Amino acid sequence: MDGSSNHNSDPNPAHIVLIPFMAQGHMIPMVDVARLLASSGALVTFITTPVNAARIRPIIDRIENSHLPVRFVQLPFPSADAGLPAGCENVDLISSPDLFKPFMEALSLFGEQVKLYLTATNQTVVPAGCIIFDSMNSWVGAVAESLGIPHIIFYGPSCFYILCSHLLKKHQVLESIDDDYELFKVPELPEPVEVMKAQVMRWMDRPGWEKVSKEFYKTEKSACGIVMNTFEELEKSGLDKFRKEIGKKVWPIGPLSLANKDLDSKAMRGKASSIDTGLLLSWLDSKAPNSVMFVSFGSLSRNPISLLVQIGQGLESASSSQLSFIWVVKEADKSEEVENWLSKFEERTKGRGMVIRGWAPQAMILGHMAVGGFMTHCGWNSTLEAIAAGVVMATWPRFGDQFVNERLVVDVLRIGVAVGAKVPIFFVDDMSEEALVKGEEVRKVVEKVMTGGEEGEERRKRAKEFAKKARKAMEEGGSSFENLKRIIQFAKGENKHLE
Ligand code: UDP
């Protein structure tokens, strides 16, 4: 299912509108959904804003040049109307936690523009057969209903996390727990795991977010179905349980990163790479298979200098004979102090370590045979990209769904080792002594993931098996491939019962 498939051969194509949430971890998989749907014969309209479109410009150009029927539409984002600085059109551009609320308000206002746009285009082109929208854009529910367009939610996190959140709410578990750091079991989970309240509290269930939360559940109720970036063979029991709980069709169509087959598409995912990909590849080519640890914490997590130093110490002191590493340090974490420390660190680790400042071509790196470990914050995209590549994880969750994803990776799938983080951190200001993982812990986990003896071998074997299943799910006749076809049929009105 890539750009070479049978697009344009259907005389009566489905028209599907995609509305991603404006954060890298949400935009990237939705671009993959666009590519997959268009490759399978649907007409796709992808709605975003100018700043976000500019970021994914290389991939837009590539999709347009391959004549896939995806129309990228840019509508102005009402930042100023919601009291945001101009150009603040993505969560990673929010400079302080106080601006998250205005950002969500701006999104609702953006909904009015989307409605006007869809009303106008529905009269001029093939009317939209359905809207697939990110669950964070729950304002789409009301817009779609007012226009009479069926709507399907795209859940970005793992099914395991969505199911946990659902069960915690159903049993009102958090309401009865006082201690934020007491371990408890999530009830009714097919594969039981233990978590802490502080790790699973959702921002929208906190005081002050009642309106957003109400709209979220209302839209979940009115949606025709749910699309997820996962695959049946990975989360079978969770998916079955969630289907029963929610009483709707749930279609896993991932791992979406596998929609990018060639190196260029992988290298362009999300944003332009901050490093020359040719240089990066020759560096990786010079390393032995499974000898490189890739260290990156997604697009939103921040690492203050105190944390960077511990990560650096752990990587530097890890004593596997052939261990190398690639470490991504985000633009937002850079400062003079960081740069001073980092340049000395680079000197000391020359040859075995590479630091990428800014944006790394992650899917490309994970897919290289030299990469044997991934220290990750357990964002679901990163987690699933590691699974699709058969790479063992060192898990270091920060916030949101990440602690629950860690449990899935470490306790259920058994393809990762926990660094031992307990306390959530989001913005740098949240960094406390308790949240600081020490360099010594980092070293131990790196060594365990990269070597780890017989246990380590078993872990790697399991990871490789999941990668095989992931590829199969996306191939013609595979579970995710078939689900994608069902969605297209639904959008054409041929599958109203959502088989
Ligand atoms: N990503 C990337 N290069 C980077 C950082 C992130 O390509 O330097 C991609 C990564 O491959 C993934 C997404 O950005 O697709 C991050 O999503 P995830 O759910 O892992 O975490 P979030 O950024 O939402 O916390």
UniProtKB/TrEMBL annotation:
Domain Glycosyltransferase N-terminal: 15-256
Molecular function per GO: UDP-glucosyltransferase activity
Family: Belongs to the UDP-glycosyltransferase family.
Keyword Transferase on entry: yes
Protein name: Glycosyltransferase N-terminal domain-containing protein
Pfam family, one: UDPGT
Keywords: Transferase
Matching PANTHER family: GLYCOSYLTRANSFERASE
UniProt cross-references to SUPFAM superfamilies, sorted A to Z: UDP-Glycosyltransferase/glycogen phosphorylase
CDD domains for this protein: GT1_Gtf-like (cd03784)
